[in-house]
Amino acid sequence: MQSGPVIKAASLLIGAALALLGGVFFYAYAVGDFVQGRSVAIFMGISLILASTPIFAFAFSTRAAKFLLVVLLFAFAAALLWMVFFNPAQAVARPWIYQTAAISFAVLLVIRVGLALRRSHSGQGT
Question: Where are the domains of the chain?
Answer without folding.
Answer: 1-60, 62-126
